[in-house]
Amino acid sequence: MATRYSVQRTNSRATPVVKNPSNNLGARIRVAHSVYEASSLAAGDVIEMFRLPDGARLIEGSLAHDALASSTTLSVGHAAYSNADGTAVSAAPAAYKAAAASTAAQKVDILATLALGSGTVLDTDGDGAMVTVTMGGAAGTGTIECTIKYATD
């Protein structure tokens, strides 16, 4: 049986030692949190929740909401932004959580898989990236709360 090493452990074992980015090891966890009170929020409406800073390593998050109405869905993603080299990154309304029913009050994970952004580092032009929640299916009314934990340093 062999011992295998993560990228970060390999860096610390190298000669000379390769410094790991601070958002990988020993980082301070920060929290972005926001609440929106929806009143007949129409299908297709986008709520700008908060802006995450450039270089943020996305760790985990949650989306909590009231029972918004029958046939409603919510997804979590980001607005369009430019990355560090100036290339445009398109808006991705379901980048962090695919659209799912919001007909019953609940709290669900976002950034729940690698494909949904867990562990990714935001590469922006310095302005960060706006996290969005998008209503789908039908109009809804109630409280929508989004929280993301991230590390920058």
Please characterize this protein's 3D structure:
The chain has 153 residues and is mainly β. 5% of the residues lie in helices and 48% in strands. It contains one helix and ten strands. The chain has one helix at residues 7-13, and strands spanning 29-41, 46-52, 57-65, 73-78, 81-82, 88-89, 92-101, 106-110, 129-136, 140-151. A hairpin with a 5-residue loop joins strand 5 and strand 6. The relative contact order is 0.34. The model has no long low-confidence stretch (mean pLDDT 94).
Oligomer: single chain
Spans of at least 5 consecutive residues with low confidence: none
Average pLDDT number: 94
Instruction: State the order of secondary-structure elements, H for helix, E for strand.
Output: HEEEEEEEEEE
Report the major sheet.
4 strands, antiparallel
Q: What's the number of extended β-strand segments?
A: 10
Overall SS class: mainly beta
Structure annotation, total helices: 1
Using only C-alpha atoms, the radius of gyration works out to 18 Å
* Percentage of β-strand residues: over 45%
Terminal residue distance: 36 Å
What portion of residues is helical? under 10%
Question: Can you tell me the overall shape?
Answer: elongated
Spatial order of strands in the largest sheet: 1-10-3-8
